[in-house]
Design a protein that fits this description.
- It is built from eight helices and four strands, in the order βααβααβααβαα.
- A four-stranded antiparallel sheet has the order 2-3-1-4.
- It is α+β, with helices and mostly antiparallel strands.
- The longest helix is centred in the last third of the chain and has 11 residues.
- The protein binds 2'-deoxyadenosine-5'-diphosphate and magnesium ion (MG).
- 2'-deoxyadenosine-5'-diphosphate binds next to loops.
């Protein structure tokens, strides 16, 4: 059994980030409020200034995209709030709460739809990140919260 401060691997988790624009605009509480109001449980929370190295690994699937450099510059421009959220189908649920990647297309009622600003030239700001699959969530939580990860290999020895 995992000890209480480690994540229970039988439960679903998502890695959420309040990005530098969200943090700077004082929207951390608003993002947390929506997550908690939905019934999800917070399992980890920290403020962190992400290094380009961490972001390189976090956004590895976007390395070849045209917007990658803008994305890394923006994500390392100020502190982010990193959160581990737990709940049934939380990965899908947080994606629903966030809304479309592009804030202009995101539906009203979603975080990006209500609070995100239009993507002007070179602007990639959209307030929040949420893991898009169990595999990504595992990889991302390992990057941002290694101290919460249950070492399955060590446990089976
Ligand atoms: P999401 O954050 O909804 O999972 P994603 O993983 O496709 O979206 O992209 C990661 C981030 O990269 C996204 O939050 C903002 C930026 N981004 C994505 N597509 C973009 C585009 N076409 N132009 C500029 N930035 C983009
Ligand atoms: Mg993504």
């Amino acid at each position: 059994m995992p000890t209480p401060d480690l994540l229970d691997p039988k439960k679903e988790h998502s890695l959420v980030l309040v990005k530098p624009d969200g943090f700077a605009r004082g929207l951390t509480g608003e993002v947390l409020r929506r997550i908690e109001a939905k019934g999800y449980v917070l399992k980890g929370l920290k403020i962190k200034k992400a290094t380009p190295e961490l972001l390189d690994r976090h956004y590895v699937e976007h390395k070849e995209k045209h917007f990658f450099q803008d994305l890394v510059d923006y994500m390392s421009s100020g502190p982010v709030v990193a959160i581990v959220v737990e709940g049934d189908r939380v990965i899908e649920g947080v994606r629903s709460l966030m809304g479309n990647t592009n804030p202009t297309l995101a539906a009203p009622g979603t975080i990006r739809g209500d609070l995100g600003r239009d993507w002007g030239t070179g602007n990639v700001e959209n307030i929040v990140h949420g893991s898009d699959s169990p595999l990504s969530a595992h990889r991302e939580i390992n990057l941002w919260f290694p101290e919460l990860m249950w070492d399955e290999e060590a446990d089976s020895k």
